[in-house]
Amino acid sequence: MRKYILIVCTIFVMTSYMSAQQYEPVTVKAGTKVISYFPPSKRYLYPNFTEGSVILDNGNSIPNMMNYNILSGEMEFLKSKDTLFIGDKKNIKSIVIAQDTFFYYNGYMEMIQNGKFKVYLRQTVELKDIQKEGAFGTINRSSASESYGFVLSGNRSLDLTPTENIVLQRVSDYFFSLSGYDFIQFTRSNVMKSIPTKKDKIKNYLKTNSVNFNSKEDLLKFSVFLNSIL
What is the pLDDT of residues 70-84, one digit of tens each? Predict the structure, then answer.
C-alpha cells in the first residue's frame, strides 16, 4: 500500500503541470490558408525536429530527425532540405522520438503510461464548425458533419483555403490497451468491460476519486491504480 501511495505521489508531482488543457478554437477566415493560423509553435509537437527512429515490423530501425505535425496528423522527417511525411504506415511497429514512443492506429498514438495497462494520447486538429454567410452579412452556423469541400487529412490540410469561415480546434483523445495493440477509447464503461474481474475495486476507486476522462492528469493517476490491481 505504501508503495502504491508513493507511486501515485510521484505521478502527481510529474504531471501537476499538465492537467487537462483546453485549446481555444481557431476561426479560419474564408479565402485564407489554414496553415497561416498555425505557426510552427502550434503546428508541431516538439519545438524543433528531434532525433528519432522508425522501428519496422521486421526489427529494422531507420534513424532520422523527426517531428509530429498535429495539424496534418502526420509524422514528418527531414531529407536534405525537404520536409516529408511517412506515407506507408502498414509496416511500422513503433516510432521513438527522444524519450517518447508512438504507435500508429487510425492516427499516431503517443504512449504516456507503460505497464500492463498502457495509456495513449492522440492529438489532432478537428473541424468543429462551418460559418456560412447569410443575408445582410449574418453568419449561419452549420454542423461540421455536413458535406464540405475538404477534409483535414494529411499534408493537404496545410494548403487548404476554405470558401467559408471554419472553426478548428486542437483536441486530445485518450486510449488504453491491455495486450499492447488493442487501442480502446479510455472511458469508464470500456475500462469496466475490459477488466470485469476487477469491477468492484474499480468502482470503489471511482467513488472516492473524481476522474475527469478528458484530463491527462486524472487518467494517469487512474492508470497507476489499474496497473496496481492487474
Answer: 999 999 999 988 899
CA 124 to CA 202: how far, in whole Å? 30
CB count in 10 Å sphere of residue 90: 6
The verdict on pTM exceeding 0.85 is: no
Amino acid 71 reads L
111 and 220 in contact (C-beta within 8 Å)?
no
Q: Which residues of 16-32 are buried (b: 16+ CB within 10 A; e: fewer)?
A: eeeeeeeeeebebeeee
- The predicted pLDDT at position 134 comes to 54
Distance CA 99, CA 112 (A): 10
Residue at grid coordinates 487537462 = 20
Domain ranges of the chain: 2-229
Rounded Cα distance between 2 and 53, Å, is 38
CB 129 within 8 A of CB 144: yes
Q: Which residue in 114, 100, 91 sits closest to 45, CA to CA?
A: 100
Q: What is the DSSP letter of 148?
A: -
Cα dist from 222 to 2, 69, 91, 119, 147, whole Å:
17, 29, 32, 10, 39
Burial pattern 91-120, b for ≥16 Cβ within 10 A else e, equals ebebbbbeebbbbbeebbbbbbbeeebbbb
Whole-angstrom Cα distance, residue 151 to residue 34? 12
